[in-house]
C-alpha cells in the first residue's frame, strides 16, 4: 500500500477498468511454486480515483497485490531484499504500461510479505488466500466445515467451504452456523433464521 504525492488516477483509469481504476498486469509470466516468476503478474488499484477522500488533494492512494510463494517455499529468504526487488519490478512494469510512478513521489508505504501474513494474522504458511486453489480444493472439494475426527469441532473461513474471498467467507460463517444449529440445536437458531445476507 502506498500514498503518492501526485494524481495517478488518470493513467490508472485508462487501463482495464475505468470504473474502479484497477488493473491486472500480467504478461506471459506464470506463477510457479517456490519462487517469484520472472515476469511478475500483479494487481494495481488506485481507490482514490473513485473515492477522493482516501488521499489528500492532488495525491493518490495505491494498492499493489503481488502473488507470492509460501514462507516454506522460500526458507531463509531476506524479505527486505526480495521486497526491494519486487518493488523495482512493479515500478518498471507500470512505467512500461504507460503509468510511470516516480519513486520520489511515494510519501508513505506499507508492505506485507508472507512472513507478515503469518506473524500478524496467523495465516498458515503465510498464505494470504488460505488453502491453494488446486483442482482438489475447489468448490465442493474444498475442506469441509467440520472435523471428521473430532465431533463438535467446526471450521469457518477462507480455507474451508465454500471458498476464499469476503463473500464466500461470509457465506462460510452462515453455513457453519446453520450446521451447528442443525447438529447441536441452540438459541442461535433464531439468529441464523434471520435473513442476514439478504
Ligand atoms: C491482500 C489481500 C487482498 C484481498 N482482496 C480481496 C478482495 O478484493 N475481495 C475479496 O473478496 N477478498 C479479498 N481478499 C481475501 C479475503 O480478505 C479473505 O478471504 C478473508 O479475509 C478471509 O477471512 P477469514 O475469516 O477466513 O480469515 P481472516 O480475515 O484472516 O480472519 C482471521 C482472523 O483470526 C485472527 N486470528 C488468527 N489466529 C488467531 C488466534 N490464534 N487467536 C485469535 N485470533 C486469531 C486473525 O488475526 C484474523 O483477524 C484479500 C486478501 C488479502 C490478503
Descriptive account of the structure:
The protein has 198 residues and is of the alpha+beta class. It has two domains: 2-124, no CATH class; 135-193, no CATH class. It has helices at 9-13, 79-96, 114-121, 166-184, 188-193; strands at residues 2-4, 22-25, 42-45, 60-65, 106-109. The chain has a five-stranded antiparallel beta sheet. The radius of gyration is 20 Å and the shape is elongated. Residues 12-22 and 26-30 have low confidence and may be disordered. Bound molecules: flavin-adenine dinucleotide. Flavin-adenine dinucleotide (FAD) binds at residues 65, 121-123, 128-129, 157-158, 164-167, 169.
TL;DR of this structure?
The protein has helices at residues 9-13, 79-96, 114-121, 166-184, 188-193; strands at residues 2-4, 22-25, 42-45, 60-65, 106-109. By secondary structure, it is an alpha+beta fold.
Features:
5 helices, five-stranded antiparallel β-sheet, binds flavin-adenine dinucleotide, alpha+beta, 11% strand, 198 residues
